[in-house]
Amino acid sequence: MKKLIAYIVFIFTVTHTHAQYDPQKVNKNAMSLFEQAIQRSEQGSLASTAGLLQKAIEADKNFLDAYLALASVYAKLKNHNSSIVNYEKAFAIDSNYAIDYKGLYAVQLANTGAFDKALAAVNEQLAKRAPKNNTALQRLQQQQRNYEFALAYQRSHPVTNYVFAPQNMGSSINSNEHEYFPTLSIDGSKMVFTRRINNTNEDFYYSEWKDGNWQPAKPMEGDINTDQNEAAQNISADGEWMVLTADGRREGFGNYDLYMSMSNAFGWTAPQNLGGLLNSDQWDAQPCLSPDKRSLYFASRRPGGLGGIDIYVSYMKPNGRWSSPENLGPGINTAGDDQCPFIHADNQTMYFVSDGWPGYGGDDLFVVRKDPGGQWGKPENLGYPVNTVNDEGTVFIAADGKTAFYASDRSDTKGGYDIYSFELREDVRPFKTLWVKGQVTDKKTKQGLPSVVDLTDLASKTIITSVETDAGGRYFLTLPIGKDYAFTVNRKGYLFYSDNFLMSGRVADSTYEKNIPLSPIEANATIVLRNIFFDVNKAELKPASLAELDKLVQLLNENPTVKIEISGHTDNAGKPADNLLLSNNRAKAVVNYLVSKNIAAARLTAKGYGETKPIADNKTEEGKAQNRRTEMKVISR
Question: Quick one: residue 212, left, alpha or beta (phi over 0 = left, psi -120 to 50 = alpha)?
Answer without folding.
Answer: left
